[in-house]
Design goal:
This protein is an alpha/beta fold and about 325 residues long. The chain has 11 helices and 8 strands. Strands 6-5-4-7-8 form a 5-stranded mixed β-sheet. Strands 1-2-3 form a 3-stranded antiparallel β-sheet, with helices on one face. The longest helix is centred in the middle third of the chain and has 16 residues, at about 180-195.
């Protein structure tokens, strides 16, 4: 079926009316008949009738980028104004990914509810979506990101309820569940992408604070990779799979030497995910005699960078040409 204009002359003027027309086959060939007279229709009305009358069969399989026919509607630009413009695509896609992972369900089941106006599980989603779309501070999320995107509309959070102090408290509420969250993500990502954890890479970095950080006992002065020896810092140890997928992290005191963190991180990962025939890969900063003995104790497999002072012992072997990749 389709719509077709019909013209009538009235009072010396030509008027256009619209009719819903159906095509059908006869022995003498295709014919057309009027199903209903629709009267006068504007552009929007004609498009609506057209969509309703379109009986073209569609495939049950969804497409990412369908190619719709171009359609136009006449709009009086003087009667239209733009208000409260929001970025929608990024937060929407992030929320869809969260649904696929089941992360929203995990937060609801893990974080207890109290008397708060906005559930902490929802505030955790705010933090995740903001860091995925536009990594920044909690203050920037509250005063910038949330105001220029559809984040609050998608999550049903009133804009006035989303402020920096509430976001900081959401981090405090989420922190006790860090280990459970890492196990959940490891298992879920392993199912989705068939990740392998036979080889784990471990290294450390540091981040510093602009201030005294008196309430943080881990904030200490130590070797600064940022060349900010005047600031207190913390040391962060990160474990990733061979493809770079994070498996877990731990925060250490800022004055702690890199090699002293290795045993603790290995034991933490083994307690969290169990012992398996994996290979640990670390740089020469982790290579101490005590650490090597620790790795050998339970037949752990490892690849550790050799300190420059020990390379002379293996100089001849390294010069041999019988090596192969």
């Amino acid at each position: 079926m389709f719509i077709r204009p019909c013209y009538r002359n009235k009072d010396g003027k030509r008027h256009a009316y619209w009719a819903l027309v159906e095509s059908y086959r006869t022995q003498r060939g295709p014919r057309q008949r009027v199903v209903a007279y629709l009267g006068k229709l504007d552009e929007a009305g004609r498009l609506g009738i057209k969509h309703a009358a379109d009986d073209t069969p569609t495939s049950p399989q969804k497409t990412f980028f369908p190619e719709p026919e171009p359609e136009w509607i006449e709009v009086d630009a003087k009667a239209v104004r733009v208000e409260n413009c929001r970025q929608f695509g990024g937060p929407w896609l992030a929320l869809e990914l969260i649904h696929v992972l089941g992360l929203d369900t995990f937060f609801q089941e893990t974080i207890p509810s109290g008397r708060e106006d906005v559930p902490w599980s929802v505030m955790a989603l705010v933090l995740v979506i903001a860091r995925l779309c536009e990594p920044s501070s909690e203050l920037s999320i509250a005063e910038n990101f949330s105001r220029k995107t559809a984040l609050c509309d998608l999550l049903g959070v009133p804009q006035q309820k989303l402020y920096d102090n509430r976001l900081y408290r959401a981090l405090d509420t989420l922190l006790p569940h860090k280990a459970k969250l890492e196990v959940f993500l490891k298992e879920k990502l392993g199912e989705l992408f068939e990740l392998e954890y036979d080889l784990l890479l471990y290294d450390v970095t540091s981040t510093y604070f602009e201030g005294d950080a008196k309430s943080n006992p881990l904030a200490q002065r130590g070797y600064s990779r940022d060349k900010r020896g005047d600031c207190k810092q913390v040391t962060i140890g990160l474990v990733v799979s061979r493809c770079g997928m994070p498996l877990g992290y731990e925060v250490f005191a800022g004055n702690r030497a890199d090699m002293t963190t290795m045993q603790e991180i290995v034991e933490t990962m083994e307690a969290r995910y169990g012992k398996s025939n994996r290979i640990w890969v670390m740089d020469r900063g982790m290579a101490s005699e005590e650490n090597i003995e620790f790795l050998k104790e339970e037949n752990r497999r490892y690849i550790v960078g050799t300190p420059k002072s020990m390379l002379k012992k293996f100089e001849q072997q390294l010069l041999d040409e019988d090596w192969h990749a």
